[in-house]
Amino acid sequence: MAGTDMDPEVARGLFEEGATLVLLGVPEGTELGLDYKTWTLGPRFRGVKMIPPGLHFLHYCSTNSNEACGEIGPKTGRFLSLKPREVLVAHWNQSEDDLEFTRDPEEAERMRANLRELDGYLGPYPYDTLRKWVSLTDRLSQEVAIALQPLSGRVCAFSDVVPELKLTHTKDREEQNLPRNDRECRSMKEGLDRLPRMKLREGTELRFSNIPEQAYPPGSTPAQITQHSMDWSYALNCVLESHYKEQPLSILGELQFAFVCFLIGNVYEAFEHWKSLLALLCRSEEAMKERKDLYLGLIAVLYHQLGEIPPDFFVDIVSQNNFLTSTLQDFFQFASSPGVDSTLRKRAEKFKVHLTKKFRWDFDADLDECAPVVVELPEAVTVD
């Protein structure tokens, strides 16, 4: 866990003011990371020192030594808000394969008193990645992170699900008018119907903002429904009113939270929410005219986020159905409207040029031209 060369003044400041994570009993071979860096742990590891105060994301994958090849388990992450000189202690729970943080002030004080002896077992914070981490979370406050993370505090790559109904016996299934399990399935549908319906275990779900399914106000005329289907400002204002009334720009913190959970925490659900939130922001024309600061902030957030995704990733996921290009195409089109602030209009144009150069995306092309063409075949012709 060696850090890169650090300016002596910075090192001294972090040594005196930095927080310390004491992580005891973490098995050798565990993949553990803090923010943007990941390590495979050796036998001497006891934690991380010289951590800049602020919000951080601790993430880890345990190894199961009983499995062949020491199989790596699913990733778990936790957002931690660390104060200057804070000492935070966690112990590895072997039966749960997870870290348990103690809130015992006496133990923290004992560890603080022993930091000199522990020092050789603590790796320094990866200062070389700090700038990158800050650029991905500069809009994410401790309050927003706490409000969005699961009540359990754990951000898990795989959902923890339990059956909606406890159907232990055949009579339980009959009482719920469900197919019995002691008869042979006659169709795929019947087989699927027999599978238990699952739900997320309480306290494990990410608590993202609710994006309204109906993008228009109740009682809208057909013409108004059409208008709100093209300009999503009403739905965006609903989200801001419900969740970020006092600080509308905190919605950018949610966009960053979702991105970090996906990029570093491997949570696919967070990627889906990032897409939904991004589409909502990009397709709200009236909001763009009224909320200049929000959209200047959005450009800065996206600049850093898109800079961190590996280029080949777009081929695999983001470019499915041209999601990103079509969403940003709408954004750039709305940003060039006459009613948009000139500073925002110029910033959007520069961002468009930057993305066109970096990814070779053509935002001026008609995306419908790339759509598959349906060809009518004569009745006598079949396709093998």
Write up this protein:
The strands form 4 sheets. A 5-stranded mixed β-sheet has the order 10-9-1-4-11. A 5-stranded antiparallel β-sheet has the order 3-2-5-8-12. It folds into 3 domains: about 10-130, Substrate Binding Domain Of DNAk, Chain A, domain 1 (Sandwich), CATH 2.60.34; about 160-200, no CATH class; about 220-365, Serine Threonine Protein Phosphatase 5, Tetratricopeptide repeat, CATH 1.25.40.550. By secondary structure, the protein is an alpha+beta fold. The protein has helices spanning about 10-15, 105-115, 115-120, 130-135, 140-150, 170-175, 190-195, 220-230, 235-245, 250-265, 270-280, 285-290, 290-310, 310-320, 325-335, 340-360, and strands at about 20-25, 30-35, 35-40, 45-50, 55-60, 65, 70, 75-80, 85-95, 100, 120-125, 155, 160-165, 200. Pfam families: AAR2, AAR2_1st. Interacts with PRPF8 (via RNase H homology domain). Component of a U5 snRNP complex that contains PRPF8. InterPro entries: AAR2 (IPR007946), AAR2_C (IPR033648), AAR2_C_sf (IPR038514), Aar2_N (IPR033647), AAR2_N_sf (IPR038516). This is Protein AAR2 homolog.
Class of secondary structure makeup = alpha+beta
Q: Tell me the name of the CATH class of the largest domain.
A: Mainly Alpha
CATH architecture of the largest domain: Alpha Horseshoe
Assembly annotation = single chain
Helix content: 40-55%
Largest sheet: 5 strands, mixed
Q: What is the number of domains?
A: 3
Low-pLDDT ranges? 65-70, 370-378, 380-384
Number of helices: 16
Instruction: Kindly provide the radius of gyration, computed on alpha-carbon positions and rounded to a whole number of angstroms.
Output: 25 Å
Shape: globular
The tally of beta strands, per DSSP, is 14
Stated plainly, the CATH topology of the largest domain is called Serine Threonine Protein Phosphatase 5, Tetratricopeptide repeat
- Residues in β-strands, percent: 15-25%
Order of strands across the widest beta sheet?
10-9-1-4-11
SSE run: HEEEEEEEEEEHHEHHEEHHEHHHHHHHHH
